[in-house]
Known about the structure:
single chain, about 130 residues, alpha+beta, SH3 type barrels, five-stranded antiparallel sheet, elongated, SH3_domain
Amino acid sequence: MAALIERNLDGLRQRSVYAMARQDASRQDDPTFQVCKRGDLLLVEKDKTGSPGKDWMNVTNQRTSASGAVHKDTVQFLPTLEKPTDVMMELLSPGQRKPSTTQNAMHRNETVAPTSLKEFAFENFR
């Protein structure tokens, strides 16, 4: 069973076009490495040779439009061939979410005046 799961994961990695950075990566001393932050969307540049044994891969950061190399262990491959929506990215990296000001305003306006059970029954059951 474990071999089957591993085989499926390897196939998914080979077909995936998009990945998400799982951690911050910064190697500013070498320009061949990609500088990315946790939660960045990365477009994987597939090799023509198709060498699956490599630990490094070339990507383009969608936030900065910069290209470079990242280690395969620092990214999470997304099982999609189309660019993921903002909602999908939010679901995949909930810690990076910025609270929406409209949601906070809606929660403040939802306060309801307390009523007694007698008042509620009088208003709704006549």
